[in-house]
Write a structure and sequence with these properties.
Keywords: Cytoplasm, Isomerase, Porphyrin biosynthesis, Pyridoxal phosphate
Protein name: Glutamate-1-semialdehyde 2,1-aminomutase
Bound molecules: pyridoxal-5'-phosphate
Enzyme class: isomerase
Number of helices: 14
Shape: globular
Strand content: 15-25%
InterPro entries: 4pyrrol_synth_GluAld_NH2Trfase, Aminotrans_3, PyrdxlP-dep_Trfase, PyrdxlP-dep_Trfase_major, PyrdxlP-dep_Trfase_small
Number of domains: 2
CATH topology of the largest domain: Aspartate Aminotransferase, domain 2
GO molecular function: glutamate-1-semialdehyde 2,1-aminomutase activity; pyridoxal phosphate binding; transaminase activity
Distance between the termini: 34 Å
Length: 439
C-alpha cells in the first residue's frame, strides 16, 4: 500500500545540500521538478512496483527510472545475479562472457546483425551517427522536432523557421557549426521529408527517429511513417536509424520493431537492456557495422562498455521478460489508461491519451474535439498548469508520475491489482485538482 506523503523535510534538506554542490540540485534536469514546482523526492529504496523516499513515503512508481525497471524494483533474480557478479569482480577492461550473452540476446530479439555495447543511450545515438557518416561519407543528418536522442551536440538542435530548416543550436554550448549539418523536420510529415531529400538528398547520411516517439509525450508514427522513412533512405543512399532506447525491449520482446516490423539500417537501445545499470547499445546491418573499429576505421570505444555487472543485470532482466510479462504490461497499461480517462471524464477535464503498446501519456488539451497529437507542435498546445495540479495531487495520493507533461508513463510488471486500486483512489482527487485549474 502506498503511504500518502505528508512529510518531505528530509527530501527538502537533501535538495538544499544537493543544490549547494550540484547545479540545480540534480544530476539530470527533469528530476528537479521545474515543470511542476515543489521539492523533488529523494528515493532511498524500491521494491516491486513501489519506491520509498527518505521521509518514508511510499509511492506506486509510474516512472520506473524513466523506463529501465520493466520488472519493477529489486527483482529477486536480478538482485541475486548482480550480487553474484559483483562478488566475482566489477570490471577488467577485457572481454567478458556476459557481454557476449547480452549481445546474442539482442541479436536474437531484434533485426540487428551485429551490436556494440556502450554505457548510455546518448553514447549509442552519438556513435550510430558517426558510423552512418563514416559509412556513407556524407555529413547531414535528418531528425524530427520533439524527438530526443540524448544530449548529443548535433541532435540538440531546434528547427529554424520554415518546414525544412537547418538546425540552430538548441542550447548554449552547442555551436552553429555543430548543428549546421542537422536538418530538423516536423514529425509524421512525409511531405517535409520528401522536400528535404529533394534539396539535400545526396548529402544526407541518415535519418534518425525515435521508433515511436515518447519524449514529446507518446506520439506514435502515423500512416506507416517508419516504412516511408526506411524507403526514402534506401532510395537516396542514406541510412535509417531507429532509436529504440525507450521502446526497445519494453513495448514488445524486441521493441517497436515488434509492432511495425520496419527493418532499420541501424538501431539504438538502452534503458531496459541495462536492467537499472548503465548499459546501452547500437547495432544494425553487418556491412555497416563492419566499418566500426577495430574491424573498420570508424573509431568508437569505452572504458566501461559491456561492464560485467551492467550486462549481467540487463541479460537477467531480458531473460525474465517473457511473452507473459509483455502481455501483463499491456493489460496493466490499458487498465491505467481507462482509470485515468474515467476519472478525468467524471470531472469534465478535456484530455487525450495516446499509447504505443504499454507506453502512454495523457495530454491535457483545451478541447477534445479533433484532438490528435501528431507532432511536437500539437503536443505543446496543452493546458500545462492542469498537469502540474494533477501531478501534485497524484504525488500526494502516493503515485509517482513523470514530473512533466511531455513524458511517457512507464509501467512495470510488478504492478498488481492492489497497485491499480492505489492508482484509482489517487485519481479522483487528482482529476478534481486538474478540473479546478481554468484553461
Ligand atoms: N534516445 C531516447 C529515445 C531516449 O528516450 C533517451 C533518454 O531518455 C536517450 C536516447 C538518451 O539515453 P541516456 O539518457 O541513457 O543517455
Amino acid at each position: 500500500m502506498a503511504a500518502v506523503p505528508d512529510h518531505t523535510e528530509h527530501s527538502a534538506a537533501l535538495f538544499d545540500r544537493a543544490s549547494a554542490v550540484t547545479p540545480g540540485g540534480v544530476n539530470s534536469p527533469v528530476r528537479a521538478f521545474r515543470a511542476v514546482g515543489g521539492v523533488p523526492r529523494f528515493m532511498t529504496s524500491g521494491d516491486g512496483s513501489h519506491i520509498t523516499d527518505v521521509d518514508g513515503n511510499r509511492y506506486l512508481d509510474l516512472v520506473c527510472s524513466w523506463g529501465p525497471m520493466l520488472l519493477g524494483h529489486a527483482h529477486p533474480e536480478v538482485t541475486a545475479a548482480v550480487q553474484a557478479a559483483v562478488a566475482r569482480g566489477t570490471s577488467y577492461g577485457t572481454p567478458t562472457e556476459p557481454e557476449v550473452l547480452l549481445g546474442e540476446e539482442i541479436v536474437a530479439r531484434t533485426p540487428v546483425d551485429k551490436v556494440r555495447l556502450v554505457s548510455s543511450g546518448t553514447e549509442a545515438t552519438m556513435s550510430a551517427l558517426r558510423l552512418a557518416r563514416g559509412f556513407t561519407g556524407r555529413a547531414k543528418i535528418v531528425k524530427f522536432a520533439g524527438c530526443y536522442h540524448g544530449h548529443v551536440d548535433a541532435l540538440l538542435a531546434q528547427a529554424g523557421s520554415g518546414v525544412i530548416t537547418l538546425g540552430i543550436p538548441g542550447t548554449p554550448g552547442v555551436t552553429e557549426a555543430t548543428t549546421a549539418d542537422t536538418i530538423v523536420l516536423p514529425y509524421n510529415d512525409q511531405a517535409a521529408v520528401t522536400a528535404a531529400f529533394a534539396e539535400y538528398g545526396d548529402q544526407i547520411a541518415a535519418v534518425i527517429t525515435e521508433a515511436s516517439p515518447g519524449n514529446m509525450g507518446v506520439v506514435p508514427p502515423r500512416d506507416n511513417f517508419n516504412a516511408f522513412l526506411a524507403k526514402t533512405c534506401t532510395d537516396n543512399g542514406a541510412l535509417f536509424i531507429s532509436d529504440e532506447v525507450m521502446t526497445g525491449f519494453r513495448i514488445t520482446k524486441s521493441g517497436w520493431y515488434g509492432v511495425d516490423g520496419v527493418r532499420p539500417d541501424l538501431m539504438t537501445f538502452g534503458k531496459v537492456m541495462g536492467g537499472g545499470f548503465p548499459a546501452a547499445a547500437f547495432g544494425g546491418r553487418a556491412d555497416v557495422m563492419a566499418h566500426l573499429a577495430p574491424e573498420g576505421s570508424v573509431y568508437q570505444a569505452g572504458t566501461l562498455s559491456g561492464n560485467p555487472i551492467a550486462t549481467t543485470a540487463g541479460l537477467t532482466t531480458l531473460r525474465l521478460a517473457t511473452d507473459e510479462v509483455y502481455a501483463k504490461l499491456d493489460r496493466t497499461a490499458l487498465t491505467i489508461q481507462s482509470l485515468v480517462s474515467t476519472a478525468l471524464d467524471k470531472e469534465g477535464v478535456p484530455h487525450v491519451i495516446q499509447a504505443a503498446g504499454n507506453l502512454f501519456s495523457v495530454f491535457f488539451v483545451e478541447s477534445e474535439e479533433n484532438a490528435v497529437i501528431k507532432n511536437f507542435g500539437d503536443a505543446g498546445a496543452q493546458v500545462l498548469p492542469r498537469f502540474g495540479a494533477f501531478f501534485h495531487a497524484m504525488l500526494d495520493g502516493g503515485v509517482y508520475l513523470p514530473p512533466s507533461a511531455f513524458e511517457a508513463w512507464f509501467v512495470s510488471s510488478a504492478i498488481d491489482d492492489d497497485g491499480l486500486a492505489e492508482i484509482e483512489s489517487a485519481l479522483a482527487p487528482a482529476a478534481a485538482a486538474a478540473a479546478a485549474v481554468q484553461s
